[in-house]
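Open question from group meeting: does this chain pack into something compact, or does most of it stay loose? Before anyone orders reagents, we agreed to write out a predicted structure and look at it together. Recording both the input and the output here so the notebook holds the full record.
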Amino acid sequence: MPLPLVQRWPILPWSGDMPSTRDDILARYLHLREISKRLHQEILGAISNDALLHQARRLGLARGKTLFLDHEDEAYYVYDLAIYTAPADRSRAVDRYARSAGFEAGSDERLMLDAMRISQFAILAIEHRHDTAGLVARDVLRNSEVWLLDVGLENSLDEGELLATRLITPGPFSMTAGVNVPFEIEMLDLVCSLLPQRVATNKLSKIADDWRFAEAVYKAGLADGVMDRLAYLDLPDGA
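Structure tokens returned:
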């Protein structure tokens, strides 16, 4: 197996040997993905309806206490932002959950939760298939390479395509937090126009780290009819 890519990302200490075959790598990925899904559900269950409605209104998906969704999967963008983002003077739901979680040090649950807390939002350009599993992509805003594991994306994305997503990096590879937006570089101007001017005039790498960046990307994607080009599917066990 080729050596994993050097990734300029926050990477947590890896306590075990990296699996060497495609089947073993995908088994590890699917195991961590199931943990991630469970953690997301638990964190979401602790977020109030008022907080979710507030986030939906910011995305233009609610007025007052009424949701207006053209597609039920649009709610995933609300959930992502409610879990992972907050103004500088507020705590994030993922951090509040971590303070009370009782996972043992060294457990995969702790590994994934820590990785979720240091996740980063990125615009990825797909470069090519990884030799063993997944995709090799470039984070165009930070100019760094990413080894991306995602069974669905591996089968659906071609070289040169762009994708905006939140990346969780629990070891040598990254995985998505669950939602994404097919991206076109022309959308970047619209995204920046949705940000405060003092944020939009920063370097791209700093813009990407601002808590409002993902929200602006989701707004631009929704305005561009993202749900007409995207579907979220749960893979069967063992896929």
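Observations to bring back to the group:
Confidence is low (pLDDT under 50) at residues 1-9, 11-15, 232-239.
The first strand starts at residue 62 and ends at 63.
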